[in-house]
Amino acid sequence: MKFLLKASLAWLVPTLLIAAPAGQALADFPDRPITLVVGYPPGGPSDVMARLLTPELSKKLGQPVVVENKPGANGMLAAKLVAQSAPDGYMLNISGLANITNTLLNPDTGVKLSDITWVALIGRNSSAMLVPAESDLKTVDAFITYAKANPGKLNCGSGGVGSSPHFTCELFKSVTGTDIKHVSYKGMAPALTDLIGGRIQVLFNTALQSKPFVEEGKVQALAVSSPERSKALPNVPTLREQNVDLGVTVWTGVTAAPGTPAAVVDKLNAAFREALELPDIASKMGAIGVEIDNLTAPQLRDYAKTEEVFWADLIKKAGIKAE
Fold first, then answer.
1. Alpha helix (H) ranges present in 88-187?
2. What is the pLDDT of residue 98?
3. Are 187 and 159 in contact (CB under 8 A)?
4. Closest residue by Cα to residue 154 from 211, 222, 209, 91
5. Above 80 in pLDDT, residue 322?
6. Confidence at 63, pLDDT banded by 50, 70, 90
């Protein structure tokens, strides 16, 4: 019996010595700077949101939180970089819906939906349905009527296959029963240029990016895609107000590498939620059309799963293929 007891203790002591540092590491998190990787160039919606949050996140976490832009492959280069990083919470990716739609369309990106660790939801941004300033189709009803009478003659642009503008356009086509040709561009800037020039007839773009073009009269905003009106374009009615049963948003979240400890995820989630609840941050987010929706990490994980099912169904019904 004494031998067995000594053997048990001999096995237990190293185990405790191993477990203690791991627990201490979690308790000390973070003890060095955190990198927030944005998969798009500076100045875009994700980048703006990241830079609004990082000063407050740094205060709450007690370590610098820095933004690093890694544009490419519609955000998937950044997503892959973070997905393959160490599972310690020190490298995060700002993305969201794009992570899901791109992975569904391109399963060989190196990012598996089952491996994504959802950390926090920053908020939702409405998309504006834009047409050229000179367009005679000045209402959603007029647009749908013309599209049905002229199948295949209208072009809907986007910043690339699998992008949020592309998926919103495909959803609009599905809901309204219209035949509109999708035109893929290498980014939203050339798509907007062609919309302004009348070379394409419609474009779904975030309210934040659309606002200056609408205010300068370069394009017309017929509607916004969100269930409620956007704070960025408060005078533009929703699609539902115009009898189109479509209510979706472009949502932005934060992810970490697969296997990141739950304690680290919860600490990061709490920091993001506390920062987003600050009146100054909430006001600035509202000014760029972001509707804050504070979710816990498990709530975000469940929401992401419902989004995966919804958009996978659209991909199948619309026959959307990767380029």
1. 97-105, 140-149, 164-176
2. 79
3. yes
4. 222
5. no
6. very high
Structure tokens given for 286 = 């509202």
CB-CB contact of 290 with 71 (8 Å): no
Express each pLDDT in 71-108 by its tens digit.
888 788 899 999 999 999 999 999 888 788 888 888 77
- CA 97 – CA 125 distance, rounded (Å): 11
| Residue 84 per-residue DSSP state | T
Report the alpha-carbon distance of residue 69 to residue 76 in Å, rounded: 12
User: Is beta strand 202-206 parallel, antiparallel or unpaired with respect to 127-132?
Assistant: antiparallel
Q: Tell me which amino acid residue 118 is.
A: W
> Nearest CA to 208 among 110, 133, 125, 138?
125
- Rounded to an integer, the average pLDDT of 109-123 is 87
**CA distance to 97, 137, 229, per residue, from 141 (Å):** 28, 8, 18
Cβ atoms of 155 and 183 closer than 8 Å: yes
Give the residue among 287, 310, 316, 227 at the shortest CA–CA distance from 49. 287
